[in-house]
Amino acid sequence: MKYTYIDSYSAEDMHEHSKKWFSELSFIKDEQRFLINLIHSFAIKPIDKNEFSKTEDFRNDIEENQKRLNPIIKQVQKHMNQLEIMIDGVNQLEMEQAYRKTHKKLFQKVNQFLLDYRTVKERGFAKLSSILKSTKQKKVLGNPDYQISTIKKEKINS
User: Fold this and answer.
1) Element (DSSP H or E) covering residue 115
2) Of these four, 44, 86, 115, 151, which has the most CB atoms within 10 Å of its CB?
3) 63 CB contacts (<8 Å, ≥6 apart)?
4) Which of 76, 65, 60 is nearest to 29 (CA)?
5) At CB < 8 A and 24+ separation, what contacts does 47-53 make?
6) Using CA atoms, how far apart are residues 8 and 19, in angstroms rounded to an integer?
7) pLDDT tens, position by position, 30-46
8) Which DSSP string do the residues of 37-90 spell out, in sequence order?
């Protein structure tokens, strides 16, 4: 999916972009923690070296993304805080142009990050799926000691 930038976004549009970016990036930050935990759960299962290296590759890709993510979140927060330049009613043409220029750069940076992250996730899930298929695990999720038992109904004599 490609994103296009329009040079004439209003202050409200730019604010909405910033809020959306912050929300998506915050979600990704939480999702990455979840994925790392998921990968660790694969690492404690009996898998061969090749499969283990697949989980390590995915973990490394996620960690690289985490390193890119934190600075972008900080830039978006700073950008959101500087929105006042656009709405304060004071004519500050140079500062407003600088804000618009920063917005355009962030637009491109955030969208490229989102595209890259989706690619990492797709590849990682493909790796994890192949591990599941190759080990033919057919365990039910949850407590492995849990067993379903049937209850025998007793007839009540009336």
Assistant:
1) helix 93-135
2) 86
3) 36
4) 65
5) 47/131, 47/135, 51/131, 51/134, 51/135
6) 18
7) 999 999 988 887 666 65
8) HHHHHHHTS---HHHHHHHHHHHHHHHHHHHHHHHHHHHHHHHHHTTHHHHSS-
